[in-house]
Write a structure and sequence with these properties.
This protein is an alpha+beta fold. It is 42% helix and 14% strand.
């Protein structure tokens, strides 16, 4: 479903209504209607290999730094921290708060676009789809919702993640 609106307020009102009617429960604000891809999938092969090396070093650092034990108790937590600090991953940021998505859609740095985008996701439908196709995928996409200790930005943004190891998910 694609719907054009005239303002951020109208967009926010629309996605709040879609949330209230349970049509969608996760939202992603984008400066443009780019394809839904994890940041890792936007890299060429050489950049992807460099990034994998950076992630490996980040994991090593996190696991060997005293005081980070609450974060290193889960690989997903470590990946979420890496994502929030700018390392490309196979996670796609979403939020459960349509107002946060609307903010990110229009507040993106470096864009002069006049049309912005809020992607809406029904996680129940995605989970059903993933379960029905699991045999044909190496690993299906997953809706990840957790709280990372001391990652206040994620909490403030009602952040959640779509694990998506595919370059062309849509």
């Amino acid at each position: 479903m694609r719907t054009r609106v005239e303002s951020q307020a109208e967009a926010t009102e629309l996605v709040l209504r879609l949330q209230k009617t349970h049509e969608f429960d996760w939202f992603r604000g984008q400066a443009q209607d780019w394809p839904l891809k994890p940041s890792m999938a936007r890299l060429d092969e050489a950049s992807r290999q460099r990034c994998l090396g950076q992630l490996e070093r980040f994991f090593h650092w996190a696991h060997t730094t005293p005081g980070l034990e609450p974060i290193t108790s889960s690989d997903d937590y470590v990946i979420a921290v890496a994502q929030h600090y700018g390392l490309p991953t196979t996670f796609i940021d979403f939020t459960t708060d349509p107002r946060v998505a609307a903010f990110f859609a229009v507040q993106s740095v470096g864009t002069e676009q006049t049309e912005h985008c809020i992607k809406c996701l029904n996680t129940s439908s995605l989970r059903g789809f993933a379960e029905s196709w699991t045999a044909s995928w190496e690993r299906p996409p997953e809706c990840l919702q957790f709280s990372v200790p001391n990652l206040w930005r994620m909490e403030a943004q009602s952040g959640v993640f779509l694990f998506c190891p595919y370059d062309d998910f849509e």
